[in-house]
């Protein structure tokens, strides 16, 4: 199993930490689906900066073309996507994996996604949807909590128990549905099960009616670098049916993507 230590706290400024750059990233992250347009005061409050500090960063981003303003409200521009594209373009595997995922979607008639682990969240790096089955709008770059998703639990299974527990304890473990498991010990058992069987199924813990199963994408060293899943509606695809009829196809697709590494 690989060991990945999640970030803890904010490092002190020094030769290896550029505080102004970190603050710039805080400002960018303050924009979201619920706050796509913000005043200077809102950006400062959301990013934990002074108005003067937030203003300098916003004006810098505006000069570089990452932000626009109408004089009162600031908004990110499409150029901000360049930052995410740099990650995707540095890992061309996802372009090569897309046909495999598309073939899987055509075979099982359910959506397929690939994600990586980032601290307590999963981040989507590729998604091939069918019809919309979730209230949550997902795309490349979307984040979901790891503790209640099939992708997240499987990716956590690649870590040592001590690290898994630390990430679970650091998670905002809310009961998103009546099925959501939030107890750390119970989640540790779920992750251990995923580690043993090398796949993970989660039934309506993220959203009522949503069921998903995930399989590992591993490199030549056997380290899990990402995971692949398929998602469906529980009212038409039970956990038993998904495991028996869709999991084999998913495992085969994940193996093909792994071979691309």
TrEMBL record:
Keyword annotations of the record: DNA-binding, Transcription, Transcription regulation
Domain spans labelled IclR-ED: 79-261
Any one Gene Ontology molecular-function term assigned to this protein's record: DNA binding
Protein name per its UniProtKB record: Pca regulon regulatory protein
Keyword Repressor tagged: no
Gene Ontology process terms (BP): 3,4-dihydroxybenzoate metabolic process; negative regulation of DNA-templated transcription; positive regulation of DNA-templated transcription
Gene name, Swiss-Prot/TrEMBL: pcaR3
InterPro entries given in the database record: GAF-like_dom_sf (IPR029016), HTH_MetabolicPath_Reg (IPR050707), PcaR_PcaU (IPR012794), Tscrpt_reg_IclR_C (IPR014757), Tscrpt_reg_IclR_N (IPR005471), WH-like_DNA-bd_sf (IPR036388), WH_DNA-bd_sf (IPR036390)
A Pfam family per the record: HTH_IclR
Entries under PANTHER family matching the protein: HELIX-TURN-HELIX TRANSCRIPTIONAL REGULATOR, ICLR FAMILY (PTHR30136), TRANSCRIPTIONAL REGULATOR (PTHR30136:SF34)
HTH iclR-type domain boundaries: 18-78
